[in-house]
Amino acid sequence: MRAFVTILGTFMVLIIGCTNENGGSGMNTGASIGPKYDTLWFNEKCAVFLEPDSIAAERWKEQIDTSVRATVVDDLVFYTSDAHHYLDSMGVKTIRVSGRPLIGFRSTVGSHVIKIDTLSSLWSVLLFDPTKQVKEIDVTDIVDEYESYYKN
Question: What global pTM score does this model have?
Fold first, then answer.
């Protein structure tokens, strides 16, 4: 149990460390913020790193077999950190979002609202360019995902 708590703590520290180049939380990168349960809107090129609130994280912990939990958390930490560093090196602003049920993206092809609990993972990464639709990516393949989204 201690190993899980340590690994989960490390993961959270790494996620909290996902900031933009100004050293902030990234919320000044074209996001308009309302009250807690309003939709959080983005309208500038960015990568949004989503993480669950503490209640959802506890539910997730209960659903994962204890024999593989540490490995799953370790993979989450590794791939999320790798994606953050790669996107940062490519000049993409990174934004960490936690505890929001809805996020929206305004682009030239229209507005799109995403209900967070419909995504494939509690820890998801979304790429956004205001000239395209938002895309949920596979962080285990960040280089190809970046190339296919931003270079096409």
Answer: 0.72
Distance CA 29, CA 150 (A): 18
Consecutive H or E run containing 2: helix 2-16
Q: How far is CA 64 from the centre of its chain?
A: 20
**SS3 letters for 18-56?**
CCCCCCCCCCCCCEECCCCCCCEEECCCEEEEEECCHHH
Strand pairing class (46-51; 94-98): parallel
- Give me the residue spans of the domains in the chain: 2-150
Q: Rg of the chain over CA atoms, in angstroms?
A: 15
Whole-angstrom distance, CA of residue 81 vs CA of residue 73: 12
Amino acid at 4: F
Residue 146, token pair as written in the block: 């970046």
Give the amino acid at 110: G
Q: Are 27 and 35 in contact, with CB atoms under 8 Å apart?
A: no
Sheet holding 94-98, edge to edge: 94-98, 46-51, 124-128, 135-137
pLDDT single digits (tens) 29-57: 445 444 445 789 999 999 999 988 888 88
